[in-house]
Write a structure and sequence with these properties.
The protein is mainly β. The chain has two domains: 104 residues, Pectate Lyase C-like (3 Solenoid); 131 residues, no CATH class. The protein has two helices and 25 strands.
């Protein structure tokens, strides 16, 4: 009886062990011991403001926000993260004036090299900036109430520019791009993300893939507007004062135009329409595939060309 009991126990143990191995084999090999705690720390500093100076922010693996504030100086904040407490403790938020008085903001990591598990968000509150440059990755960018040329490059993140007194160039991937109340020209380039422009007061150039594009121009903005996308709809709301040749084409979709005062038909064929508004010869163009094109003359615009 005793021998039989031990034999049964051994068989049961072997069976349980086999089941355990099967269960473990269903887990990724990296699951054991791969978890690493992420540590966060905040940094903040204030820098004297220099009127008419530019702002440059360089970041990686994190978002960037820069906006106008009624503060006397420039406040720079950062939330940094790492899986190494010692390295995080020695990470430094930098905000230094350059020889031309521009303010350069960045994070200095130990050994002058950021690891892939490190990054952070940066926020800048300033009385103003005459020129803004932002370089980031894996993070969104928001600019609000600034001026001069805004030049933004990021990846895997959206870009939003609001109430900007100047030209805007923005490039991203896998993220949407939005411009609101930009007084100068707009150049937006993204992939797999929608483009929305409202109250545009200057020329608009927008390109994306696999997403829609919407552009609304302010009254008094003559254009031009040039849009290209694939697998997405395009809608243009053109304020009074828009002029020139408007060429619209799609490979698989309809084209509809309404309320465009003074428009004359130049050409109409399969999936292509060309109109003339006014006597200007400047060309505006819309090109999409697998998407419709909608153009309409706007009601009195909320924007202004002033």
């Amino acid at each position: 009886m005793t021998v039989g009991h031990h034999s049964s126990f051994r068989r049961l143990f072997r069976r349980a062990g086999a089941l355990g191995l099967v269960a473990l084999s269903g887990l990724p090999l990296g699951a054991c011991g791969s978890y690493q705690r992420v540590i966060y720390e905040d940094r903040a500093m204030t820098v004297a403001h220099v009127a008419g100076s530019a702002l440059s922010v360089v970041n990686a693996n994190g978002s960037v926000t820069a906006e106008r504030s009624d503060r006397a100086g420039v406040l720079v904040e950062a939330r940094l993260f790492s899986d190494d407490a010692e390295r995080l403790a020695f990470a430094t938020l930098r905000a230094d004036r350059q020889g031309d008085d521009s303010l350069r903001v960045w994070v200095e990591w130990p050994g002058e090299r950021r690891r892939g598990t490190e990054g952070g968000s940066i926020r800048v509150f300033t009385p103003g900036a005459d020129g803004v440059s932002v370089r980031s990755s894996n993070g969104s960018v928001v600019l609000s109430g600034l001026g001069g040329l805004a030049d933004v490059t990021t990846s895997n993140g959206s870009v939003v520019v609001r109430d900007h007194a100047g030209d805007v160039r923005a490039t991203t991937s896998n993220g949407s791009v939005r411009g609101e109340g930009v007084s100068g020209s707009i150049e937006f380039d993204t992939t797999n993300g929608s483009v929305v422009v409202t109250d545009a007061r200057g020329p608009v150039l927008a390109e994306t893939t696999n997403a829609s594009v919407t552009v609304q121009t302010a009254d008094g903005n003559p254009g031009p507007v040039r849009v290209r996308t694939t697998n997405g709809q395009v809608q243009l709301d053109l304020g009074s004062g828009f002029v020139g040749l408007l060429r619209m084409g799609t490979s698989n979709g309809s084209i509809r135009v309404r309320g465009l005062e003074g428009a004359e038909l130049v050409e109409c064929r399969d999936n292509f329409v060309e109109l003339r508004i006014g006597k200007d010869e400047t060309v505006s163009a819309v090109k999409t595939s697998n998407g419709s094109v909608r153009v309409r003359g706007s009601e009195p615009s909320r924007g202004s060309s002033d």
